[in-house]
Amino acid sequence: MIDRARRALLVERRTLTSSEVRELHDLGVTATGDLASLAHEVRLAYVGNTVEIEGIVSAKTGGCPEDCHFCSQSAQFATDVKATPFLDYDTLLLAAQETLATGATEFCIVLAVRGPDQRTMDRLLDFIPRLAQATGLQIAVSAGILTSEQASAFAAAGVHRYNHNLETAASFFPEVVTTHSYDERLDTCRLVKANNMELCCGVLLGMGETNEQRLELLGALRDLEPNEVPMNFLNPRRGTPFEHLEHVEPIEALRWIALFRLAMPSVILRYAGGREVTLKQWQELGMTAGINALIVGNYLTTLGRSPAEDISMLHELQMPIGSLSSVL
Ligand code: SF4
Predict the structure, then answer these.
(1) Which of 62, 104, 101, 65 is nearest to 83 (CA)?
(2) How far apart are the CA of 113 and the centre of ligand 1, in A?
(3) Beta strands 52-60 and 106-111, pairing class
(4) Tens-digit pLDDT profile for residues 277-301
(5) Ligand 1 contacts CB of residue 102 (under 6 A)
(6) Which of 128, 154, 247, 294 has the fewest Cβ atoms within 10 Å of its own Cβ atom?
(7) Is 144 in the pocket of ligand 1 (CB under 6 A)?
């Protein structure tokens, strides 16, 4: 099956069918090395060895009315995250400048909200063009569920990429979130694309979903055709309903990174939250199993390793840092 997948992706230059993706999955965990090796070949053939670096800033932390069971920013759970007001422009500019200094090309402003209210929209629409002009960074936003008008306003303000995650499969979603629906998430993802912004649509593995549901999620992503897929692995947060779950095993994480690359050969596949606690000293292996982008620095409520460690890893792997939009 590996040889057939190699022929399809690298010789015939076609996307794998869903049943071919399933066959690769069915090879099991012992095939992880072969899957990772092929995924690396595919990544180099489709998107080269450049790695895109992004910094994220939490512009409004905590106090979110939604109940995503993995999230310490939900106001419905007794976590140690304190709600903070919207950051002012100067603080965001400082964060953007720090991001720029790491070599990053993308800066994502993230807000813990169900969706942006008018006041939030007004601020973002004011800040985004100024931040882009002051730093030259491409500005991404993650502000929850959008209306059609809000999506077109962000596009007009120059938002380069909008993040809205599916997180998991439709069949598992009710175990994760009850305050909004999977269809609402899909609608926002489609609005992003309809307004010609790049769609960043991530996943969170390790919430108790089955392998079958991971394949279902992969199918939904392939239908959506996002430009970027951040791969998060659950880092259980104290006080959330998922606080007692275990980390994904490193070999399983690598297997799914490779399967995601093989199923979506041209996508920007980004290492996101939870990689440090999941992959530990094996983080380099993900970079040769299909990952071609990183979030550097800290995540929204958890600490990442230092940007210098990631830059040094990329240097050792001889993977240059750059923007990936141009190769898609
Ligand atoms: S994941 Fe986002 S929408 Fe869900 S609770 Fe956390 S901040 Fe709110």
Answers:
(1) 62
(2) 6
(3) parallel
(4) 999 888 889 999 999 999 876 555 5
(5) no
(6) 247
(7) yes
